Each structure stands twice: as C-alpha cells, then as structure tokens.
Amino acid sequence: MIQFFHVYKAYPGDPPVLSDINLNVEKGEFVFLTGPSGAGKTTLLKLIFCAEKATKGQILVGGRNIARIRESAVPYLRRNIGVVFQDFKLLPHRTVEDNVSFTLDVLGVPRAEAREKVRRMLKLVGLEHKADSFPLRLSGGEQQRVVIARALVNDPTILLADEPTGNLDPALTVEIMDLLTQVNVRGTTVVVATHDATLLSRYQKRTVRLERGQIVSDEDGVKAARRMAAV
Amino acid sequence: MSVLAKATYFWRSAAVGLRHSPFVHFIAVTTIAIALFSAGMARGAARMLDNLLASLGGEVEVTVYLAPELGEDEVHGMRSRVEELSAGQVTVVPPDAALTRLRTELGDLGDALAELPENPLPATLELRVPPEKRNPAALQALAKELRALPGVSGVDYGEAAVERLTAIARALRFGSLVAFVVVLGATVIIVAATLQLAIYARRGEIEIQKLVGATDRFVKAPFLLEGLLQGLMGAGVALLGLWAFGRLLGPTLGQLFAFLLGPGVGTAWVEPRLALELVGAGCGLGLGGSFVAVGRFLRV
Question: Is B185 found in the same domain as B283?
C-alpha cells in the first residue's frame, strides 16, 4: 500500500531530514512510527500525502509513484488519505457536523447524503450527540475524535495520524488509540507517528523507529513491546 | 459527485465569507462604487462635451467665393452642384447682399463703401456642413473638391478654429481615458488587498480544504464569487449615486450650463446602456481583484 525506495529529503543548506528510507506498509496494516523529536516522523508522513516532495527516491502509494506526481493530481491522491493532526486543525466557527462534512463538500456529495454519512461517522466516534456543538466547547479527546471522523468520512484507504494523542491525558489517549485500532480492524491502513513509548507497549503493533532521519529498527509488535519493557 | 452540490457550496461559502468579514468587504464595495461612480460622472461629462462640440460645430460654415463674371443662372447652378457635393445646406449671398452685410458690420465706417464706383464683392455660397463632415480632415477634403470646381475663386472654412476645437476635444477624451484606466488599476489593487485580508482570515479553512483533497479551482471559486458579489454591490451603489446625483443636481446644472451646452444637460445620468456597462465593469473589477488576491494563498 505504501512503499519507500531509497528516499531522501533535505532542505537547502541543512543536513538531510530523511536519509535512504526503505519502507513497505501492507494494505490493512497498523504501523507505529516512533523516534525522538526531530527524527523525521512528521516529514515522512508529509511525503505520503504530498505536503512535501522527496529530494530523491521513489514513493509508491496504492501502486502510484507520488515522487513524480503532477501538482494537479495531488488533490485526487489526498482524497484517499485521511490525516489526523496533533493540533486538530478544526474550524472553530463551524459546528462538529460542518467540520466533518467539510471533506464531503470538497467531493461535491449532495447535502442530504453528506448529512447521513456524517451522522454515521459521528456515531462511530461516539459524538452523535455533539453534532451541533462548536469545537471549542469540546474536550481535547472529543476534538480529536471529530478530526478522526473528518479524516474517515469519505472512506479513505489510508489513515495517517501525527502524534494524535500528543495533547491528551492518558485516559483520552487510550480512547483515541482504541478508535484508531477499531478503524484498522475495519480494513483501513493506519500509520501513527508517536514518541509515546507506553502506546507501543500497550498496543503491540509493528514499530518503525527513526533516528536522525534514518530507520534504525523495524520490528513486529511483540518484539517491539518486549524491547520497550526491557528499556 | 454533484455539480449542483458544489455550486450550492460555493454560493453558501461566498455568503459566509461576506458575513464574516463585513468591514473588509465594505471597504472593497465602497472602493468599487467610488470608481464606478467616477466613471459614470466622466461619461456624463463626455456627453456634455459632445453637446458642446455639436453646438460649436453647428456654427462651422464653409464660404465659397464665386468668380465675379458668373451670371445669376450660373450662380444657382453652382449652388445645386455644391449642395450635391457636400450634402449640406447652401444659401446664395448675391453681391449686393454681401455689400449690405459688410456695410452693417463696419458700422460708421460702412459709409465709406458708398464711395466705391462699383461693388467689388463676388457672389458667395454659404454652406452649412452636415454633422458627419464637421472634422478637420473631412472639411479639408471638401474644400479641396470645391476649389477644383470651375467658377470657384476661393473657399474659406475657418480651418484653424476647427482644428483647435477638435484637438481640445481629443486631449480631453484621452486625458479622461488615462485617468479612468489609472482609477481602475488602483481599484483592482485596493480590492485585491482587502480581499487578501479576508482570505488571510480564512487561511485555516483553505489549509484544511487542500489537505482533504480540494483542487485549486474548488478553493478559488467561493472567493471569486465573493469578488463578483462585491462588484455587483459596488455597481449597484454607484448607479444609485448617479441616479441621485441626476435627480438632485441635474436640473440645476441644466439651468447653469444651458447657455453653453443647449438643452438636455439635466436629463437622465443613468441610461440602460450605462447601467449595463457599469455592472459589467463592477463584475470585472471584483473578479479581477479576487483573482489577484486568491493566487497567493493556495500553496499548502
């Protein structure tokens, strides 16, 4: 589903942010990207949804080489990728329902159909009773669930989450991670960037560790959890 | 994927945009209205200038001096020939009438003319030139043709005065065109700057739109519609202003300048064609301004 072949990313005058990245994420897989701040986790995610372009190497998403993709084709690629950010990126003056239906507006889904889909998605994330609330009146966990609903409402094949629990307390963190696991069980490929070691131990998923822009380990969930426990 | 759903979204989004930044949009609408009001006023002034030229141009007369040896029948024959050639109105001034007129014009000095042994003045034809020939080039060509006629000893049409009048009109028209272009350019810049503020206020929304797969055209469309709506509103305000100006000050202006410009000065300042032109210009200004403004904010 997602393949990196000798990918480099560098900004002029700076050392490379990513060096010789080789990675293969299968369809329906759940992968943690971990590593210290500045390791290149966010940049790697950005390369997948074309917010950044690779300096060198090939990246295949759904079999399509996005390292050479035309600018005008990027929006169509993004419609298959849901993205969840640490800082939510919700529109404060729009209701929860409007925020979630934003993705469907872009696709030109008729209003009645969009409303139906949004209600279904809000039910999935447990926020159907908050449809008419404004984001700033919600807790951090609820806001993040709205973001997940927005990312999933058009049934993307891939969900990317960049530190989705970074601003949340432990209880809300579990709530969000359980939701992402549930989404993965339904068939969506999920890639989560996090530096929270407790998540890796608790959820025991494949873990790719980045340090200084390079992949230093790529382990299955059990092995990674065992190593985390030993540390 | 529904086109109707997208169109509905664009209009809804444009309306939300106007509601969320009322002051910014007020500035843009006011700027467009002032520019279009000025354009409408300039158009009115141009119409006055045309009236002025027509009234002064009506005075343009070509005098054709005939050879003294021509008899009365030949003079009338020349009159028909000149009328045919110029498509104008010709009056015959016989030598006696010309002398009487000269005596009257000279006043006390006119008595000296009585001492002349014979009338030295030839018969003349006074030609009132039709409107389409009241310009230097046409008059020059007509004079040339008339001079070539047998029996014509000279032609005079006040060449210098006509050329000066036309040059003044041309300079005024060119000056107002340059001023109009400058005002339009400034308006586009101001509208673009104000719209950039509105777009900046919605940059978060644009960023999310781009992240969930909106194309550049999709992001631009509501802002272009906002510009279009601003242009329509600006044109509406300008037309209202011109109508009010015509109603309140038109009659007074008509009275003040009637001696110079003739009747019709105080008539309608807003005509259907002008209204259409101003609405078109307003839409162009709004769209142009928003097009310039929106380009900068699409890179995410």
Answer: yes
Same domain as B168, residue B147: no
CB spacing of B5 vs A111 below 8 angstroms: yes
Under the banding of pLDDT at 50, 70 and 90, the label for residue A6 is very high
| Interface touch A109/B1, C-beta < 8 Å | yes
Q: Does the pLDDT value for residue B114 go beyond 80?
A: no
- In chain A, the residue whose alpha carbon lies closest to the alpha carbon of B12 is A105
* Overall number of domains in chain B: 2
Same domain, residue pair B143 and B238: no
Q: Which domain, by its residues, includes B182?
A: 3-55+164-297
Tell me which of B137, B157, B177 is where a domain ends.
B157
Mean pLDDT for the stretch of residues B34-56: 78
- Residue B146 sits in the same domain as residue B97: yes
Instruction: State whether B88 and B206 are in the same domain.
Output: no
Within 8 A of A52 by CB-CB distance, chain B residues are none
**Closest CB to A108 among B6, B207, B212:** B6
Give pLDDT, residue B300: 40
Q: How far apart are CA A10 and CA B284, in angstroms?
A: 44
- Give the mutation candidate from B16, B212, B219 for the A interface (greatest A CB count, under 10 A): B212
Mean pLDDT over each residue of chain A, to the nearest integer: 90
**A2-80+156-230: CATH, from 3.40.50.300, 1.20.1560.10, 3.30.300.30, 3.40.50.10260:** 3.40.50.300
Instruction: Answer yes or no: do B141 and B267 share one domain.
Output: no
In the stretch 80-109 of chain B, residues with CB closer than 8 A to chain A read none
Check A89 against B215: CB less than 8 A apart.
no
For chain A, which residues make up each domain, given as ranges? 2-80+156-230, 92-155
Same domain flag for B36 and B145: no
HSE-up of A9 (CA within 13 Å, CB side)? 27
Residue-wise pLDDT for A108-136, tens only, equals 888 889 999 999 999 988 899 999 999 99
Q: Do B209 and A72 touch (CB under 8 A)?
A: no
At residue B108, the pLDDT reads 77
Residues B286 and B193 in one domain: yes
> Is residue B3 less than 8 Å (CB to CB) from chain A?
yes
Whether the Cβ atoms of residue B66 and residue B90 lie closer than 8 Å to each other: no
CB contact under 8 A, B212 and A72: no
Q: Which two tokens stand for residue A185?
A: 């069980």
ipTM of model over 0.90: no
Interface contact flag, A75 B210, Cβ < 8 Å: yes
Residue B254 has pLDDT above 80, yes or no: no
State the distance between the two ends of chain A, measured CA to CA, in whole angstroms.
Answer: 32
Contact A98, A153 (CB under 8 A): no
Question: Which residue of A lies nearest to B217 if distances are taken between CA atoms?
Answer: A72
